[in-house]
Amino acid sequence: MQSVAFETLGCKLNFSETSSxxxxxxxxxxxxxxxxxxxxxxxxxxxSVTNDANSSCRKTVRRALRRNPDAFVAVIGCYAQxxxxxxxxxxxxxxxxxxxxxxxxxxxxxxxxxxxxxLIYNSDVNEAVDxxxxxxxxxxxxxxxxxxxxxxxxxxxxxxxxxxxxxxxxKISTVIRNAEKLVREGYREIVVTGVNTGDFGTGTDENxxxxxxxxxxxxxxxxxxxxxxxxxxxHEEIIRLAASSGKIQPHFHIPLQSGSDRMLSLMRRRxxxxxYRQKVEMIRELMPDACIGVDVITGHPGETDDxxxxxxxxxxxxxxxxxxVFTYSERPNTHALTLEPVIPVPERKKRTHQLRRLSxxxxxTFDTRFSGQERLVLFxxxxxxxxxxxxxxxxxxxxxxxxxxxxxxxxxxxxxxQSRDGFLFGKIxxxxxxxxxxxxxxxx
Length: 444
Ligand code: SF4
Description:
There is one protein chain. This protein is of the alpha/beta class. It folds into three domains: about 5-125, 3-Layer(aba) Sandwich (Rossmann fold); about 140-370, tm_1862 like domain (pyruvate-formate lyase- activating enzyme); about 375-444, CATH 2.40.50. α7 (about 170-185) packs parallel to α8, α8 runs parallel beside α9 and α9 (about 235-245) packs parallel to α11 (about 275-285). It has helices at about 10-25, 50-65, 80, 85-90, 105-110, 160-165, 170-185, 210-215, 235-245, 260-265, 275-285, 305-315, 345-370, 430-444; strands at about 5-10, 30-35, 40-45, 70-75, 95, 120, 140-145, 190-195, 225, 250-255, 290-300, 320-325, 375-385, 385-390, 395-400, 410-420, 425-430. The chain binds iron/sulfur cluster (SF4). Iron/sulfur cluster binds near residues 153, 155, 196 and 230. The site of iron/sulfur cluster has 9 residues, from α6.
């Protein structure tokens, strides 16, 4: 049987989708190998959030062809939907599949042989109306469960609606079936993921709060984490459910993009800074130990020095835990291209560095606040420089001396100082671990 290798660029959603396509190939008997090994077929799931994403796709295609110049190369996903012709110009690409067709490789091809000419299966993104279930099952501890796709918002800087189509989601019952399957496969944590996750159920009689209530009732599921949720969709009932649930982890990643109200309206975001502060304060009141992550874009057209300073001061004044900072990059067919003034790239980068320094400060303050305390950690498997690592409930990275018996275990850990690698050293109650190991060996 032919061998196949996969490479994913971009977000958690892309990883869950690649993982599902990989399972389909494996279920048909294809031999799945690592991307850096020689394979008969290479599948690259792409991203197009920035220019860099496009160039890294091209580099990845060349990496595959260096391994096996005769390999069948399929490029799928967001970049494939937005720039199919550009990809078809890359020497050696056999097929390009956009949003509607990216799950149809096995329907479209019986045998994966090199094509004379690159085949493009692409259509208007508005035809991508189906919801394809997906969940990642690569890492043995946490699974990314796709619950929503596409986006119907019109943020000025964003191409995702052009790459993935309008917002859509399955029935809650479908998501619960997938979650129960993951629990049966031994996953201790499910990361609920999507493009605009909080928009789950839009246009139906179901919504994100109801989904979280249903997930909260899944037997055997110990941890639920929400990958990201828009501030205007993070309703009070969702925060209160998380505060009382015990399963929904005290960790919220909430895109802000700018702390200036003028910029938020320029970006066509659906809230103002006041609402954002309200959500942060409500979380802090109900879950004082919660981790709050924030997405910010620097250098969006219109972001004068004053508006940037206003944004910086707002972010600095928030009791949050870390930032993901993105430098604005021009994307084709986005409204931001028509806005002024355009901020010079060096200035954008200077602002990004400044906010990343602020993020490091906030992260250090947040993490070390828990030094000396005990938190539950879900341990992954890898031995990283003699340490086995994992995340606490409130999303702090912790490491203890490597012990394979800890893999996929949720253990109380005494948190210590911060290591040079950024994780907190932890101390395990050995007696408890021995008991745990005996129990799991008895219960299998
Ligand atoms: S909410 Fe805005 S930034 Fe997020 S995916 Fe939708 S359009 Fe893009």
